[in-house]
């Protein structure tokens, strides 16, 4: 039978043993069978078959007729998956409630970097990262992983999270994202650096590109591993690599800067800088609120003013903010030569430039 091995593997993912999957699939193909007919079709001993049949009945995968000899038939797989989904939804709700009580207790800070094993583990960590986002998500994803995560990315957009997404290779559809065009910037590239998902510049999941390559022999799910990262300095180093590709990548979907689009919050400084640079080039003066700290004394501050210019020289990038007491230079995480290290930049509104000011 075509795809027999594939189907057996998928049935095992539903919790069946290999032998149970073989019996279930045989019953499905035959549209029902007796023990005798199963013994003729399968290389299996009768006592073992009876144990498998009882196990499948307990799990709800097969049914037995009331007459003699008993005829066993396979249950509908869609209904079985729906039942499993209901069980998992209930389990999810119960565990979330109970675990929230535990997490609310005082505890030591968790590790800055931790490893996750298997494709399922990596995907679960990414979903957790996406679901935790409140302001923005930066992501660089192989196309097959993007397809898996699409519902969760759309869910984040429904929560008004901004999404900056690069997918490689660019052979997928982004049609569902068009209705969120004021929240998304999507680009594509024929080749990526890695798998990377960052939530609010506080948590990230990283995995090697090799695990998802369409150009090399596939890697088994169990060989896949990745890292959950909370170390902000490391996140920024990964973002520097990502940004080099982001600049060169092909734009697929992007919001159009206009007055009604704002206010808009930016946590990741390079995206804020790109937006401010675009607005200045289009003849707008952005009025922004910066939350961060004074670089010299480390004191927290919140300041509002007009952006007058964006500066990029070497590894230093910042913007000049004009406020009621003068001007300040605003830099990103770990700023040293600027006056202020920004932790978030909110573009409150934009105004048309007048009198030649830029």
Number of domains: 3
Strand residues, percent: 25-35%
For the biggest sheet, the summary is: 8 strands, mixed
Number of strands: 16
* Helix fraction by DSSP (H/I, runs of at least 4): 25-40%
Low-confidence stretches: none
CATH superfamily of the largest domain: Endonuclease Chain A
Name the average pLDDT: 91
Number of helices: 9
Question: Could you state the order of secondary-structure elements as H and E?
Answer: HHHHEEHEHEHEEEEEHEEHEEEEE
Overview of this protein structure:
The chain is of the alpha+beta class and 358 residues long. The protein has 3 domains: 4-75, Winged helix-like DNA-binding domain superfamily/Winged helix DNA-binding domain (Arc Repressor Mutant, subunit A, Orthogonal Bundle), CATH 1.10.10; 113-254, Endonuclease Chain A (Endonuclease, Chain A); 259-352, SH3 type barrels (Roll). 37% of the residues lie in helices and 30% in strands. The protein has 9 helices and 16 strands. The chain has an 8-stranded mixed β-sheet, with helices on both faces. A hairpin with a 5-residue loop joins strand 12 and strand 13 (300-313).
Briefly summarize what is shown.
The protein has 9 helices and 16 strands. It is an alpha+beta fold. The chain has 3 domains: 72 residues, Winged helix-like DNA-binding domain superfamily/Winged helix DNA-binding domain (Arc Repressor Mutant, subunit A, Orthogonal Bundle), CATH 1.10.10; 142 residues, Endonuclease, Chain A (2-Layer Sandwich), CATH 3.30.870; 94 residues, SH3 type barrels, CATH 2.30.30.690.
């Amino acid at each position: 039978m075509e795809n027999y091995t594939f189907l057996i593997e998928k049935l095992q993912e539903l919790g069946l043993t290999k032998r149970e999957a073989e019996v279930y699939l045989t019953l499905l193909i035959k549209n029902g069978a007796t023990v005798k007919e199963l013994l003729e079709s399968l290389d299996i001993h009768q006592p073992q078959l009876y144990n498998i049949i009882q196990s499948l009945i307990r799990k709800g995968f097969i049914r037995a007729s009331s007459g003699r000899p008993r005829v066993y038939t396979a249950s509908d797989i869609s209904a079985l998956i729906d039942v499993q989904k209901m069980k998992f939804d209930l389990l999810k709700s119960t565990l979330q409630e109970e675990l929230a009580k535990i997490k609310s207790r005082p505890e030591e800070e968790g590790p800055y970097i931790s490893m996750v094993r298997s494709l399922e583990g990596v995907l679960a960590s990414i979903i957790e990262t996406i679901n935790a986002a409140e302001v923005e998500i930066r992501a660089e994803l192989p196309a097959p992983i993007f397809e898996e995560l699409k519902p969760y990315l759309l869910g984040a957009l429904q929560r008004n999270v901004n999404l900056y997404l690069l997918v490689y290779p660019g052979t997928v559809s982004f049609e569902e994202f068009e209705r969120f065009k004021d929240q998304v910037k999507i680009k594509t590239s024929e080749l990526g650096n890695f798998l990377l998902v960052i939530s609010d510049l506080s948590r990230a999941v990283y995995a090697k590109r090799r695990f998802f390559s369409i150009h090399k022999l596939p890697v088994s799910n169990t060989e896949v591993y990745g890292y959950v990262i909370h170390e902000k300095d490391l996140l920024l180093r990964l973002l520097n690599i990502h940004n080099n590709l982001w600049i060169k990548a092909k734009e697929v979907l992007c919001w159009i800067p206009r007055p009604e689009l704002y206010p808009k919050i930016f946590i990741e400084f390079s995206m804020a800088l790109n937006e401010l640079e675009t607005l200045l080039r289009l003849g707008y003066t952005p009025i922004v609120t910066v939350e961060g700290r004074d670089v010299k004394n480390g004191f927290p501050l919140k300041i509002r003013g007009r952006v007058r210019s964006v500066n990029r020289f070497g590894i230093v990038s910042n913007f000049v903010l004009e406020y009621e007491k003068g001007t300040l230079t605003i830099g990103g995480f770990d700023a040293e030569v600027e006056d202020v290290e920004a932790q978030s930049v909110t573009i409150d509104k934009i105004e048309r430039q007048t009198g030649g000011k830029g």
